[in-house]
């Protein structure tokens, strides 16, 4: 029993110090545009690479965050409703005060297959669903290959 406790105490000390490293100096420098942390005196450093990725040993891991640019996403002013939802036979896609030029809809099943599609030429479009099985569907409204809105429809 004494031998077991002695071995346990020795291995416990190894586990406590297994993730530490003694360095000569180190600090964090902070400025207007960010901060940098450094350490001096790291005794070993190695990088291993393979086709699956790269792993680096050491106390500090260097990485760089770069902002390449910001794209402004235009706000879509589409006001659209789909009713009744849930539905038994058909749904009405109602679009208010929006340019109907090149406006289309696509109805997808849960596997992503297009069930039906069509052009939107009026403010209210009837989409027949009586022949479809009871399930969840997605109705996507797009204009000139730009997705504007996606609705989830429940068919009873």
From TrEMBL:
Residues 82-148 form the Secretion system C-terminal sorting domain. InterPro entries: Secre_tail (IPR026444). It comes from the Bacteria. It holds the Pfam family Por_Secre_tail. Residues 1-20 form the signal peptide. Keywords: Signal. This is T9SS type A sorting domain-containing protein.
């Amino acid at each position: 029993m004494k031998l077991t406790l002695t071995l346990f105490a020795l291995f416990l000390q190894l586990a406590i110090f297994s993730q530490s490293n003694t360095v000569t100096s180190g600090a964090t420098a902070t400025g207007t545009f960010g901060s940098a942390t450094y350490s001096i005196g790291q005794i070993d450093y190695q990088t291993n690479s393979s086709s699956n990725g790269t792993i680096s040993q050491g106390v500090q891991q260097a990485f760089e965050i770069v902002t390449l640019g910001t794209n402004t996403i235009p706000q879509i002013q589409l006001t659209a409703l789909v009713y009744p939802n849930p539905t038994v036979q058909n749904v009405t896609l109602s679009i208010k005060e929006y340019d109907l030029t090149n406006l289309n809809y696509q109805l997808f099943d849960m596997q992503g297959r297009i069930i039906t599609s069509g052009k939107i030429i009026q403010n209210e479009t009837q989409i027949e669903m009586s022949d479809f099985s009871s399930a969840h569907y997605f109705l996507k409204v797009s204009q000139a290959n730009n997705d504007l809105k996606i609705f989830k429809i429940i068919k009873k």
